Task: inverse folding
């Protein structure tokens, strides 16, 4: 997570958030997409062929924007769930994910799969 410092004209690092469960590596976060009405966002992990679903904490984000030291800020995202975008029987090393999109109604999330040559719809 970052905060923009308009006086310096720079982004300041304000902590980091894993794009999946603790202990997992090489997930490859590619894009983030926000739900149109709920405090939820989706991160497509290109290398692991998964979607990570996060709760977005507006109050924590507001604290980051308003300033202060990095140590005093709670993460703005909290991992709720990870979901595979390909069937379990399909070899994960033969697929990578591309784009993720949330439908404007908020009812669907779509993810493209390269290798499996499909679009996962949630």
Result:
């Amino acid at each position: 997570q970052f905060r923009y410092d308009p006086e310096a004209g720079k982004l300041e690092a304000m902590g980091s958030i894993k794009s999946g469960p603790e202990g997992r590596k090489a997930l490859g976060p590619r894009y983030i997409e926000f739900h149109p009405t709920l405090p939820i966002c989706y991160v497509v992990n290109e290398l692991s062929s998964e979607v990570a679903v996060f709760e977005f904490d507006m109050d924590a984000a507001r604290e980051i924007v308003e300033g202060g030291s990095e140590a005093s800020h709670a993460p703005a995202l909290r991992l709720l769930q990870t979901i595979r975008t390909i069937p379990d029987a399909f070899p994960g090393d033969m697929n990578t994910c591309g784009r993720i999109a949330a439908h404007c109604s908020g009812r669907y999330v779509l993810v493209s799969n390269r290798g499996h040559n499909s679009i996962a719809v949630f």
Q: What stands out?
A: Strands lie at 2-5, 10-13, 29-34, 40-45, 50-56, 77-84, 96-102, 109-114, 118-121. Residues 58-66 form the longest helix (9 residues).
